[in-house]
Write a structure and sequence with these properties.
With 454 residues, this protein is α/β, with parallel strands linked by helices. It has helices at residues 3-16, 56-59, 68-78, 92-104, 118-135, 158-162, 167-170, 203-215, 241-251, 304-308, 330-345, 348-363, 402-412, 434-452, and strands at residues 35-39, 42-45, 50-53, 109-115, 145-149, 181-183, 219-224, 228-229, 235-236, 255-259, 283-286, 298-303, 372-378, 381-389, 394-395, 415-416, 423-426.
């Protein structure tokens, strides 16, 4: 592509596109990168420059770009049918994918409701949980509320925002949202209870139980990001926390919704994050990596008990009145099936374990930097929290844009990453090579040095 063509695209982008989670006033040609092609772990811009995709194109690309098996699966499906509705009809890829998801999901999940993205998967989960208590054999109609965690992120639609806990993202919309109960986040580095792990004996669970004990008759479900609160800053739950949440939900008759949108499909080193502590949720939402980063698709899985509450005579109107135009889209389901087949054929999760250890070793030097407060890692999910003062944990002021400056510096050096405030996020494709991991971490390290003046 010529420089003139690239310049025109840059102007058209600036003139026509409103980018998500982006302050368009700050969006300049200097920060603009137009992707034209991709291959493996690399994105390639209109000038032919290659960049390591350090966040898997927002956490979705699993096996690298242009994976031939997924390419072929989509092309085969195009030659048959690209889309037909799932409202009253079915299709071959959707059936096969639903069966496959149930076979690999945590035990007890037996039904699959397809949708389009993580937010919709969560909306489906919330509505199912609410309606379940209204029409189960022994209804508990007062159970209409939800409990979630501070620093939680479950999507951008209004229901998902209602159970979110990041003021920067969610506070603006507070007048539009339904009320929820909120418990302390297991954010050990900045514990809101002023305690330290492990001496705290998981005091945040005690606080959660107090909320449940007082309000369980009103609570339909608790929603949680298992093991890692992603958009909250890659906050890792301490061992035993997730299992404790499951125990409390069972004790107080509260459904547990596992939001595995970000953590599912190998990101934490297991197929699903719930597996780390042997937790079986009542409802599970998945999306992002389900198609290997190719097409929008999501699914909400439920137990048979939950599903049965929606069965009845037509006149009873127990139907789940919810759906999406592209629910169960054939192209997306075909891509997802190919994605899951790669996990098996290439033994992706088994091979990943050594890479996780290697990545951990490459992250150790970061902990010595005076402006790095904490390095958090769970599998291939990494958060590097930058602080103005390491001793006091004083954060950089947001107006300093420290995270943005680091990622801009990394881009100059050939790496695409995206920060969460003062937290530098790394989440490369599971297929990334050791050499590419080495390059990725070295560039991020040098970028932090350059920006912080360490």
């Amino acid at each position: 592509m010529t420089k003139k063509e690239t310049k025109q695209l840059e102007q058209d982008d600036k003139h026509y596109i409103w980018h998500p989670f982006t302050q368009m006033k700050d969006y300049t040609e200097e920060t603009l990168l137009i992707v034209k092609r991709a291959k493996g772990s690399y994105l390639i811009d209109t000038n032919g420059k290659r960049y390591i995709d350090g966040v898997s194109s927002l956490w979705v690309n699993i096996h690298g770009h242009r994976k031939k098996e997924i390419d072929r699966a989509i092309m085969r499906q195009v030659r048959q049918v690209s889309h037909s509705t799932l409202l009253g009809l079915s299709n071959v890829p959707a059936i096969k994918l639903a069966k496959k998801l149930v076979s690999i999901a945590p035990r007890g999940l037996s039904r699959v409701f397809f949708s389009d993205n993580g937010s919709t998967a969560v909306e489906v989960a919330l509505k199912i949980a609410f309606q379940y208590w209204q029409q189960r054999p022994h209804p508990q109609k007062e159970k209409t509320r939800f409990i979630s965690l501070k620093n939680a992120y479950h999507g951008d639609t209004l229901g998902a925002v209602s159970v979110g806990g990041i003021d920067l993202f969610h506070e603006t919309y507070r007048p539009l949202l339904f009320k929820t109960y909120q418990a302390a986040s297991p954010y050990c580095y900045r514990c809101s209870l002023k305690k330290r792990y492990p001496e705290c004996s998981l005091a945040c669970l005690n606080q959660l139980e107090k909320v449940m004990k007082k309000n369980h008759q009103k609570i339909a479900a608790m929603i949680i990001e298992p093991e890692v609160q992603g958009a909250g800053g890659m906050l890792m739950s301490p061992p035993g926390y997730l299992k404790g949440v499951r125990r409390l939900c069972s004790r107080y008759s509260i459904l547990l919704i596992a939001d595995e949108v970000a953590v599912g499909f190998g990101r934490t080193g297991r197929m699903f994050a719930c597996e780390h502590e042997g937790v079986h949720p009542d409802i599970m939402a998945v999306a992002k990596g389900i198609t290997g980063g190719y097409l929008p698709l999501a699914a909400t899985l439920t137990t048979e008990e939950v599903y049965q509450a929606f069965l009845g005579e037509y006149r009873e109107f127990k139907t789940f009145f919810h759906g999406h135009t592209y629910t169960g889209n054939q192209l997306a389901c075909a891509a997802a099936l190919a994605n899951l087949e790669i996990f098996e054929k290439e033994k992706a999760l088994q091979k990943l374990q050594a890479k996780i250890s290697y990545l951990g070793n490459k992250l150790r030097p970061f902990t010595a930097l005076s402006n790095v407060g904490e390095v958090r890692q769970k599998g291939f999910m990494v958060g590097i929290e930058l602080v103005k003062d390491r001793k006091t944990k004083e954060p950089y002021p947001l107006e300093g844009k420290i995270g943005i400056r680091v990622t801009n510096e990394a881009r100059k050096r050939g790496v695409v990453i995206r920060p969460l405030g003062n937290v530098i996020v790394l989440m490369p494709p599971l297929s990334i090579s050791y050499r590419e991991l080495n390059t990725l971490t070295e560039i991020v390290y040098k970028s932090i040095l350059e920006v912080t003046g360490d």
